[in-house]
Amino acid sequence: MATKTHLKEGSPDMPKRERELGFYERFRVSLHDLGYHNNVSIIARYSNAIKISNSWPHSVFRAFSYALQKHPELSTTVIRGEDGTFYFQRLSTVNLEQLITFKTFQGIEGEDIDKELVSLSASENNRGFENTATIPLWRAIAMRGPSDCDSFRIAFIWHHVIGDGRSGLAVHQSLLESFRLFEDDIDCKSNRPTTASLEFTCVPTSPKPLFLPMEKMLPNSSAPPAPAPLQGLKWAGNFYNDKSPILTKLGHIRVSANSVQRILSQCRKHGTTMTALLQAIVAKSLLNKVPSDRIRTAVAVSLRRFFDPKLEIDDSVMGLWISTYTTEYHKTQFSQNAEKLDSLWKISQQNTAQINGVMANHGKDVEIMGLMGVHDYSAAVKSRVGQPRDNSFGLTNLGIFRGVSTVEGQEDIAIDDMFFSQSCHANGAAFQICIVTVQGGDMNVVFNWQEGVVLQEEIEGIVGGVRALMGQISFSE
């Protein structure tokens, strides 16, 4: 580090100041620095990977070197100018040994794996990032079992300012591409790459430009009118306060691949989608467990589909381009007969109609744009202390990750399981649901909440209700 003090301005080894942060990026920095939201994480299982596992840890470093070239966000930090303006800063090189941890789990697969994933994710989601002006805003944990195991898992954890949930999928897609590209480069005798070794403490960063913030991508967007106040008592957990520690807790449901296919078949039969159905299922389960008769939910929506195609932004790149749409529910909408699903399908169809309306709007009305006019995000967030929460629960469904083998009958390395979670939002919804499915694999549904905001018996009842309804639907005719 001592040599850094002698670098001159403009030197190729000096960090380079990039663009100013957009409004939503500044909001995310404020939340992190206040300790109100730490990070997002996705843990992926890589299977049919005996060659990669045998060249451990070199192969993992090499894969992240490849991802660094694909995603310039992985080499950025956030700095504050003398006038208080936030900027992205790009490092000239990245030391992967500072960012990647290697672990060995004897029980990496089997019945206890879900407990391990919940424990690891909760631990990571409760850790923020230090030295955000000098070290990239992500970290990773590579985990494997015994040496003869043909699978391993990689946990990728990142600051929300450099990417939304789909950004995590993009990084894992890049890692998978790298493993496939380099698998044939492994010398079976030495279990080392046949090409020259790379220096992983000093990996050059990508020359690609950073993408623009959402307000530049959607310059004609504005916030829609605020929803009318709910008529009746709304449940949204305990009020936000800054007196107690902010501790994220996680719950989890694994839905088997066969059940996922049966539920999707039922969705097609009833003219709805998995996201719309999950909204209705969680809402019904919540209303069954709380005394209030009304709730409001916020569902994440990706804005990428609304950008000009010439910008070449799709799900393969990193960036923070999300908003939400809100939906309200009340108990009288749902049948109290546990055996009847008619009302659930009706609500799900209404949810689908709302989603279709959001898509048809083409990004002209974007709820998150309401934050653009805020001058001081930290002060705005702190002003909510002691106030009721706007939303009862939030839901983010990343959909289906397509990371299976590319050649039929050929067992390429593949991603066949994913576990998506994030920190609780201290002054956001009372709890959140994070969902991801791998093509042909299980669906993982993760619940995250702040200790003291939702009672343990409440969340257990909600998780149990969701599990029961998913099972009921998967076996319905």
Automatic annotation (TrEMBL):
<dbReference type="Pfam" id="PF07247">
    <property type="entry name" value="AATase"/>
</dbReference>
<dbReference type="InterPro" id="IPR010828">
    <property type="entry name" value="Atf2/Sli1-like"/>
</dbReference>
<dbReference type="GO" id="GO:0008080">
    <property type="term" value="F:N-acetyltransferase activity"/>
</dbReference>
<dbReference type="InterPro" id="IPR023213">
    <property type="entry name" value="CAT-like_dom_sf"/>
</dbReference>
<protein>
    <recommendedName>
        <fullName>Alcohol acetyltransferase</fullName>
    </recommendedName>
</protein>
<dbReference type="InterPro" id="IPR052058">
    <property type="entry name" value="Alcohol_O-acetyltransferase"/>
</dbReference>
